[in-house]
Amino acid sequence: MADQKVYDMLIIGGGPAGAAAALYGARAGLSVLVIERMMLGGEITSTAWFDNYPGFPDGVGGPEFGALLEKQLANLEVPVHYGDIEKVELQGEQKKVFCSNGEFEGKTVLIATGTLPNLLGVDGELELRGRGVSYCATCDAAFFRGKKIVVVGGGDAALEETVFLSRFAEKIFLIHRRDKFRGCSWLQDKVQKLPMVEVLWNTTVSRIVGDNKVVSLQIVQDGKERTLAVDGIFIYTGRQPNAPFLEGIELERNERGYILANEKMETSIKGVFAAGDVRQKFLRQVITAAADGAIAATAASQYLYTY
Ligand code: NAP
Questions:
Q1: How many domains does the chain have?
Q2: Could you tell me which of 10, 33, 41, 79 has the C-alpha nearest to residue 245?
Q3: What is the pLDDT of residues 33-89, one digit of tens each?
Q4: Is 75 within 8 Å of 23 (Cβ atoms)?
Q5: Do 215 and 71 sit in the same domain of this protein?
Q6: Which one of the listed residues 140, 156, 277, 292 is annotated catalytic?
Q7: What residues make up the domain containing 185?
């Protein structure tokens, strides 16, 4: 089904970056369409709680924040199309976005598709995904009430989700490949005060074992291999840009695939903008994603004056 309308701005991704762009775009009088794969709010909706966004003195739940974004876009009557992007054509004055269930044209395109979790890449990971292997504590923590689990990683996500999982699990082994966390010091302090958390430094997971569900892990600690009996494993080993539809498109990206954009969120293709975690940037947070979106929509609005 091809939409006949040519939008001023097609926004791919309905997380904080895309939602802020839609808000600024709509308020600037642009016709905008948000194209979203699953639900508005993006990655933050899979975080139980965050308390580093101004204006929420007691913090806010990720799902609640997503619902607020949805309400805000609905109040502004911003249309949202739900579908998976299969292909994009970004060159020229009229850009095209092809979804599994629709085709759309826009004078500008904003890519705000965020990131995806990195896989650990060990035997058993894919086979036992959803059967004890998880990348989302908010989604799956309740299945591990009173159980023994592992969290892998040493960044903010691993630390933050360990704190959340401590409300459910009886025992958490936090496995990190080095002897120092990468995550911020206040999260480290929080984790270190949790009695059920045992940090296994200089440790890696070499195999996830189980037939129908996870029963144990093979781990290598200080060069020695051993079995660790656990019911589940939460993997937080970083993320990668989520833009498979850019495969084969000449859009400048860095060596890890993050889109290069300037201060106005302009990419190497005229009329194409990038905002939020999918672009190369210093700080990947909700607040910086929202700021990127606001800037991108304002820059797109300026670009359209001379269109
Ligand atoms: P990250 O900061 O890149 O940390 C990934 C962690 O996984 C690192 O400790 C890394 O180890 C480890 N790792 C990577 N590959 C591994 C492998 N193959 N095997 C074992 N360990 C591996 O990623 P993140 O924690 O997902 O955070 C991503 C961004 O989001 C960061 O900028 C972070 O600040 C932000 N974030 C912020 C908050 C918050 O402010 N509340 C919450 C979550 C995320 P090394 O340390 O040895 O490299």
A1: 2
A2: 10
A3: 999 999 999 988 888 788 889 999 999 999 999 999 999 999 999 999 999 999 999
A4: no
A5: no
A6: 140
A7: 119-235
